[in-house]
Amino acid sequence: MTESPLLRARGLTRHYGARVGCRDVSFDLYPGEVLGVVGESGSGKTTLLECLSGRLEPSAGTVEYQTRDGEMVDVFALSESRRRMLARTDWGAVRQNPRDGLRMDVSAGANVGEPLMAVGARHYGAIRREAEAWLGRVEIEGDRIDDLPRSFSGGMLQRLQIARNLVSKPRLVFMDEPTGGLDVSVQAKLLDLLHRLVADLGLSAIIVTHDLAVVRLLAHRIMVMRQGAVVEEGLADQVLDDAHHPYTQLLVSSVPMP
Amino acid sequence: MNPVIAASGLAKTYVLHVQGGVAIPVLAEASLSAEPGDCVVLHGPSGAGKSTLLRCLYGNCKPDQGAILVWHAGAEIDIVAAEPRTIIDIRRRTIGYVSQFLRVIPRVPALDVVAEPLRAQGRPIEAARARAADLLARLHIPERLWSVAPATFSGGEQQRVNIARGFAGGHPILLLDEPTASLDADNRRVVISLIAEALERKVAVIGVFHDDEVRAAVATHTVTMRAEGTA
């Protein structure tokens, strides 16, 4: 186990004026690892995710990413265009509200095919076949391929967003409350799907959520955030079953059976 | 032979911050070790820390003091100090665990729940499912239930799925936390023979068993834990 990290954050801090978004966050994420970031709303989880994924410049600290050539690059030292290219070829971002991550005015098939074209695919037939295959993997009937997403249920929209994000074979996926806002039964189905996809594709992922059941099932590792800082971290089931920090204990004891 | 797992000087106190900072000492100076083919049975009154000790060995509970050395992938690793990804690799290849309760992804069929540890080791799906089917059949889970998610099963059925899953991976170290608690006599005997076969394959087993019949049938060593958590 001497491989090097895929993502390395050091001293990551983001202020909003006098207010702290996240403060002095450091960790390494290794290939194939799923990291869950938990905490109540306002704990800085989403700010951290935005910084890690290159969408929000930190006030201090660095994010380094290992490219496919094995080179460690400083994400915020890259040119804007290089960073955007990295986001297209290497990263996925699943938003809580699928409407933010999808194009609602083009068909389901186009939503899945577009990222392939963005990384250079040109053959229409091949793109459509790939889109069809991905709709199948996320359990959307093939005959919905030409429908607009607005006719889809919340759960279907979220699955479509996942297909749009994974079709271009990213190495790292950032997810912000991926099961938030869905019915419990729909959540279970989505969790099962995400669990399988992450394992089958060997993806690395960072999942921000306030739902401890989601991190128990999906994450290998957990970071607990409070007021912008990481207060506890470790193996997912160990942190949940043997929480040490008062805030983690409070979170765990506030739900029936996380 | 050398131990494949050895815990020494484990101490653990739960501090409940949400309940006024109450401190509950569970383990003090707990030590044990197991060689291949050993079945070490933890014995002692309820509250003596038997389950906590097993959970420490699995990395699910972090001791305040002590070391847990495990022979994994040709090296000795201290679970207490290991990184999460190392512990995950140890669980994949070296240590299997049957907990008191089954806890899995809601929608996955029983057959795949049991096959999962083998899939995680890279075994092809057909071979993994064949081994899972064999274990479910031995534990008398009717075939019509194999394609159903275990959430709707009875307590005893869930526990048998859990046992099948624990044995499926063929790990060289196996931790069993009261695996027979909710089983009838027939199924208890199946578990006894599964343990016996594992010991013959030189698996090191460490377990807690509430009933004397199972304990007498499988134990090669007994570690007595006192109420203050020493072993």
Name some characteristics of this structure.
heterodimer; A: 258 residues; alpha/beta; Rossmann fold; 2 domains; 6-stranded mixed β-sheet; 4-stranded antiparallel β-sheet; 10 helices; 25% strand; globular; B: 231 residues; 5-stranded parallel β-sheet; 35% helix; 26% strand
Explain what this protein looks like in three dimensions:
The complex is a heterodimer of chains A (258) and B (231). With 258 residues, chain A is of the alpha/beta class. Chain A folds into two domains: 1-90 and 171-258, P-loop containing nucleotide triphosphate hydrolases (Rossmann fold); 100-169, no CATH class. Chain A is 38% helix and 25% strand. Chain A has helices at residues 45-52, 80-89, 98-101, 108-118, 124-137, 154-166, 184-201, 212-218, 236-241, 246-253, and strands at 7-16, 19-29, 34-38, 60-66, 72-74, 91-94, 172-176, 204-209, 221-226, 229-235. In chain A, the strands form two sheets. A six-stranded mixed sheet of chain A has the order 6-7-8-3-9-10, with helices on both faces. In chain A, helix 7 (184-201) links the parallel strand 7 and strand 8. The two termini of chain A are 30 Å apart. The mean pLDDT of chain A is 92. With 231 residues, chain B is an alpha/beta fold. Chain B has a single domain (34-62, 83-224), classed as P-loop containing nucleotide triphosphate hydrolases (Rossmann fold). The radius of gyration of chain B is 17 Å and the shape is globular. In chain B, helix 3 packs parallel to helix 5 and helix 4 (125-138) crosses helix 5. The longest helix of chain B is centred in the C-terminal third of the chain and has 16 residues, at 185-200. Chain B is built from seven helices and nine strands, in the order βββαββαβαααβαβαβ. Chain B is 35% helix and 26% strand. Chains A and B meet through helix 7, helix 9 and helix 10 of A and strand 1 and helix 2 of B.
